[in-house]
Design brief:
This protein is mainly alpha-helical. It is built from three helices and two strands, in the order ααββα. The protein has a two-stranded antiparallel sheet. The protein is elongated, with a radius of gyration of 23 Å. The N and C termini lie far apart (69 Å).
């Protein structure tokens, strides 16, 4: 999907989003230069996994679209020991 190129297109996208999400608050539309976004966002967000020695063992691509929870899960499984198997219960008769 391409970004809107006019304020009217941007307003239409915002209206569709607000309608589909059933938002009950007014939507504020940024200008086409994204002035508000540039002034107030803290991009790029990333997800990191740090091992016990303090080394970065996983760094995601910039978010939110670069976040891949499955990759974080795989990294954690590689770093953390597997849970112990449940103890066998022996019945005595």
């Amino acid at each position: 999907m391409t970004s809107p190129t006019t304020l009217a297109e941007r307003c239409a996208v915002a209206d569709t989003c607000a309608t589909r999400l059933a938002l009950r608050l007014p939507a504020v539309i940024d200008d086409l230069k994204n002035s508000t976004e540039l002034a107030y966002t803290a991009w790029p967000d990333r997800l990191y996994v740090i091992d016990r020695e303090g080394r970065v063992t996983y760094k995601s691509r910039p978010g939110p679209f670069g976040f891949k929870p499955v990759e974080v899960e795989q990294t954690l499984k590689r770093l953390l020991p597997a849970p112990a198997a449940p103890a066998q219960i022996t019945q005595v008769r």
